[in-house]
Write a structure and sequence with these properties.
Layout lengths: L9 H15 L8 H14 L5 H10 L4 H10 L11 H16 L4 E2 L2 E9 L5 H13 L6 E9 L2 H9 L1 E3 L8 H7 E5 L5 E5 L1 H4 L2 E5 L12 E6 L8 H14 E9 L13 E4 L2 E3 L2
Parallel strand pairs: 2-3, 2-8, 3-7, 8-9
Antiparallel strand pairs: 1-2, 4-6, 5-6, 9-11, 10-11
Helix pairs in contact: 1-3, 2-4, 5-6
Bound molecules: S-adenosylmethionine (SAM).
């Protein structure tokens, strides 16, 4: 008989923490025991396994990547919203875009190249907010070659972003005019009103599964990287490694945006400070 999550001993809890740290560098504190019990208990019951001991054994022996993906889907915190921390979108519109338009560091086929990355994109609200900001503030689109990448370690949220369908109440941060311009009304889950991202915005974005601590398969440098409310889960050493990898992945003038409760103080890096939570590669 399945015990669901009742057999979560200290030993298994610590092994799960170690596994999560090794694979995703997420430090699960002692205070996450109930979260692990609740979220894995559900998965264990769905898999009709005996309990945590069984589940851990399966996790460890799995070579397909299914276990890692299931574990990350169960423990990741995906809180996000449209135009969250709006000062970053204002900065894009009022500071970043005018500067890039005036002296573009990279051109392609006669167009200004702009490559953005939402690293830890969750269900996609962040990258679509970025896309709306760009489309609303670029008045000569024929001059621009824009591509946005959105990645996350949680395959379920990546799928959500890819579908681009959001319950109507999730669009609170989007102005009425932009809801009309960038979303089509559709029937959502359980018949509730929802909105689907229109192709003009959807086609700017590519969604991909990516563990930030795996190799990055990128050919081009980015113009900006949003990695907001993700590093908060990592220890300082891991943050430092990541911030330096971001630096190397940005082109000249490239920007890094981090979450409002995050900071690079105490981290060795080469960025210049632009304003709180905004950093530039000169
Ligand atoms: C709180 S959400 C932040 C979403 C969005 N950036 C924002 O600020 O609204 C954090 C996201 O980071 C992702 N994440 C955590 N560890 C990761 C890792 N090692 N690689 C890639 N994504 C990761 C989680 O799956 C989650 O979707």
């Amino acid at each position: 008989m399945s015990t669901g999550g009742d057999d979560l001993t200290d030993d298994i809890f610590n092994k799960i923490r170690k596994y999560v740290y090794q694979h995703a560098r997420i430090s699960l504190g002692e205070n996450k025991r109930e979260l692990v019990r609740a979220r894995f208990g559900k998965v264990i019951r769905q898999r009709k396994m005996e309990g945590f001991r069984d589940y851990y054994q399966w996790m460890q022996n799995d070579a397909t990547g299914e276990a890692l993906s299931e574990v990350m889907n169960a423990i990741s915190t995906n809180l996000t919203s449209f135009f969250r921390e709006n000062q970053h979108f204002q900065y894009l519109a009022n500071t970043f875009l005018p500067a890039l338009g005036a002296s573009p560091p990279a051109m392609r086929g006669g167009k200004i190249m702009l490559r953005g990355w939402s690293a830890g994109c969750s269900t996609g609200e962040e990258v679509y907010s970025t896309g709306i900001t760009l489309l609303e503030n670029i008045h000569d689109p024929a001059r621009w070659d824009i591509k946005l990448l959105a990645t996350d370690i949680d395959t379920e949220v990546v799928g959500h972003g890819q579908r681009g369908v959001y319950a109507e109440e999730r669009l609170k941060g989007v102005s009425q005019a932009n809801v009309k311009r960038y979303f089509d009304p559709v029937m959502g889950a359980k018949g509730k009103p929802a909105c689907r991202v229109k192709p003009a915005l959807r086609n700017l974005v590519t969604f991909r599964y990516l563990n930030l601590f795996a190799d990055w398969p990128f050919r081009n440098k980015f113009s900006f990287i949003f990695c907001r409310n993700v590093m908060i889960y990592f220890d300082r050493e891991t943050q430092e490694q990541l911030v330096n990898r971001f630096y190397n992945q940005l082109g000249p003038g490239g920007h890094l945006f981090i979450g409002h409760s995050e900071s690079l103080s105490g981290i060795k890096h080469h960025f210049d400070y632009a304003q709180p939570t905004v950093y530039v590669k000169r």
